[in-house]
Amino acid sequence: MARQKHVELVRNARFQQIWRSRKGGEVESEVDSLRHLCHLYDVVRVDSEDQKSRRRKERHISLEDNAILCNYLPLLREYVPSAAMEIESEMKSYLSSEGFALHLFF
User: Fold this and answer.
1) Is the CB of residue 80 less than 8 Å from the CB of residue 62?
2) Does some domain include residue 68?
């Protein structure tokens, strides 16, 4: 979700830059004299480090949530077996995607 928002912001910034460069007419003639003196650029910085740290935080949160859910799985199995099966499958898929093996002992 955050990545989509970020991509949308980058696209909007690029569109604004293109729109300003394509705008012609009276405003452009006044600005031409300034362009000979200096050039202005719109710079958008994308920090990949921030994205990596967010992913790490999400990973730690989800591991904590999984640990809590793992403690309540026997109770869920008894009263809501379909939800317990769904949680177990999500935990297995998450951990296998991260390169971990999941072994549940009760």
Assistant:
1) no
2) yes
Residues 100 and 66 sit within 8 Å (Cβ to Cβ): no
Asked whether residue 77 is domain-assigned, the answer is no
Torsion angle of alpha carbons 28, 30, 35, 40, nearest 10°? -70
Count of CA atoms in the C-beta half-sphere (13 A) of 49: 1
Q: Is 94 part of a structural domain of the chain?
A: no
In a domain, 8, yes or no: yes
16/1 Cα distance (integer angstroms):
23
Write the pLDDT tens digit of every residue in 25-81.
455 556 666 666 666 566 666 666 666 666 666 656 566 776 776 677 777 778 888
